[in-house]
């Protein structure tokens, strides 16, 4: 999750009564509020915002690839590999949007919101859909995967609300992440990639199935998503920022 806050150049936010407004933000607000032109919103996007859109593009393409795998033959892994590969590409664009925003000295409140929405798609929904395609399809599995996605959603919302209040270092950047950042779910994606390479999917998922044939049928490996979700919304886990 890149650092895309309203503070210019990633600096410490100051009281609005004593510091001048960020001109790039004011210009963006004016363009977004303009009532002229069907595509006036496009003019309001910064370069970093467009890079963030590519993060969302990668996430959605991953989701579509997982769905294509579900529609095809189980032993044809091309689509599921495509789904897994799109996720780290999303991380690349998530990293680059913050770099470009600082390089161009342009902050963007809209960029901060875009960043969170794109992260939810690429690192929340996409891994959950991929795991469903690989075999986590029982009602309990899907309920726990939904819990995972909602934890990611809540964690991103909390970040947007509390980022200005977190302790800062001398450069104005937050000293730590509160709860694990949502891109850490790529660790689960790498585990799923290993399963695919070994053919451990569908009926051959690691650790088998508990309660098979009952309403509580569940694959124990879904616990990876539950643990990840709990770690994201944790208040006590502090991950130092690099």
From TrEMBL:
Gene Ontology MF term list: CDP-diacylglycerol-serine O-phosphatidyltransferase activity
UniProt pathway: Phospholipid metabolism; phosphatidylethanolamine biosynthesis; phosphatidylethanolamine from CDP-diacylglycerol: step 1/2; Lipid metabolism
GO CC terms in record: endoplasmic reticulum membrane
InterPro entries: CDP-alcohol_PTase-I (IPR050324), CDP-diaglyc--ser_O-PTrfase (IPR004533), CDP-diaglyc--ser_O-PTrfase_fun (IPR016271), CDP-OH_P_trans (IPR000462), CDP-OH_PTrfase_TM_dom (IPR043130), CDP_ALCOHOL_P_TRANSF_CS (IPR048254)
E.C. number: 2.7.8.8
Superkingdom of this protein's organism: Eukaryota
Catalytic activity: a CDP-1,2-diacyl-sn-glycerol + L-serine = a 1,2-diacyl-sn-glycero-3-phospho-L-serine + CMP + H(+)
Swiss-Prot/TrEMBL keywords: Endoplasmic reticulum, Lipid biosynthesis, Lipid metabolism, Membrane, Phospholipid biosynthesis, Phospholipid metabolism, Transferase, Transmembrane, Transmembrane helix
Membrane-spanning ranges: 77-96, 117-136, 142-161, 182-201, 221-239
Keyword Disulfide bond among record annotations: no
Membrane topology recorded in Swiss-Prot or TrEMBL: Multi-pass membrane protein
Family note: Belongs to the CDP-alcohol phosphatidyltransferase class-I family.
Name listed for the protein in its UniProt record: CDP-diacylglycerol--serine O-phosphatidyltransferase
Organism field: Lasallia pustulata
Taxonomic placement: Eukaryota, Fungi, Dikarya, Ascomycota, Pezizomycotina
């Amino acid at each position: 999750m890149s650092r895309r806050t309203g503070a210019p150049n990633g600096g410490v936010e100051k009281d609005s009564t004593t510091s001048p407004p960020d001109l790039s933000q004011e210009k963006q607000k004016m363009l977004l509020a303009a009532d002229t032109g069907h595509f006036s919103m496009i003019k309001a996007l910064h370069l970093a915002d467009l890079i963030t859109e590519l993060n969302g593009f990668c996430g959605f393409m991953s989701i579509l690839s997982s769905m294509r795998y579900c529609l095809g033959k189980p032993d044809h892994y091309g689509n599921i590999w495509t789904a897994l590969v799109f996720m780290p590409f999303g991380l690349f664009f998530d990293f680059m949007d913050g770099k470009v925003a600082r390089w161009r000295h342009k902050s963007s409140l809209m960029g901060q919101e875009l960043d969170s929405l794109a992260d939810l798609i690429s690192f929340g929904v996409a891994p959950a859909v991929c795991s469903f395609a690989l075999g986590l399809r029982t009602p309990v599995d899907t309920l726990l995967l939904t819990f995972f996605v909602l934890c990611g959603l809540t964690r991103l919302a909390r970040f947007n609300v509390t980022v200005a209040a977190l302790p800062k270092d001398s450069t104005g950047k937050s000293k730590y992440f509160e709860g694990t950042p949502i891109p850490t779910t790529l660790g689960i994606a790498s585990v799923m990639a290993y399963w695919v390479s070994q053919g451990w999917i569908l009926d051959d998922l690691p650790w088998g199935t508990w309660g098979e044939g009952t309403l509580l049928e569940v694959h124990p490996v879904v616990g990876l998503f539950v643990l990840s979700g709990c770690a994201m919304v944790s208040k006590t886990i502090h991950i130092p920022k690099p």
